[in-house]
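Hi all, a correction to my earlier message: I attached the wrong file for Endonuclease/exonuclease/phosphatase domain-containing protein. Here's the right sequence:
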Amino acid sequence: MCKQIKPALVFLIETRAKEKSIMKLKKKLHFENTFCIEPRGLSGGLCLFWNNIYNVDVYFWCDSYIKARIVDKKGNTWVCNFIYGNPNFGRRREQWKEITATNYNKVEPQLFIGDFNDVLTQEEKMGLHPKPHSQVREFRSFVDFNFLMDLDLKGGRFTWFSNPRNGFVTRERIDRALVNWEWRLLFENASLTTMPAISSDHSLLILELKSVYRIRKSFKFEAF
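and the right structure:
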């Protein structure tokens, strides 16, 4: 898929891979830079690959997200938060509170992208049971407190699909890109597209950046 799309930056979650394996993958995909967080035991792991068209300064990281300041060749600067929402709701709620509490400069262009493990409305889930209202409320509060808006998704309504259970598949839109107004003005024609993924229950997210300076480069997010 990378050979076909040729993204300038890729974010991977749940890699379950040690640094040695990540470096082999970086070489295979022909990326120039990498930043990885190794898994704990048999789960977790985050990884960024990028080429030198971007200057990526990672300044904070933990098991569930990476914060980086990104500068492109035209001098456009923004903060990117690469997110993996903790599968446990209690820990995920604390994650949203932590990110909000440390978001000191909300007027700087900001992008939040990844697997949030949350939905913004009940319409973003199709399954036997609705999403608990408390979880939807907490996530919406996180979005509102950080003055974020949801980028429209092209290519499909949902991004995650469960294994069949009693002949029924649960579908959710838990992968997304959230941006503030300043970022939206910088990349007013940016587009977010979902594509089916191979050997994953998540779809790929492809974010194409089209700034006011007409530079066009793509981000790619994949959950294993």
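Sorry for the mix-up. The chain has a mean pLDDT of 90.
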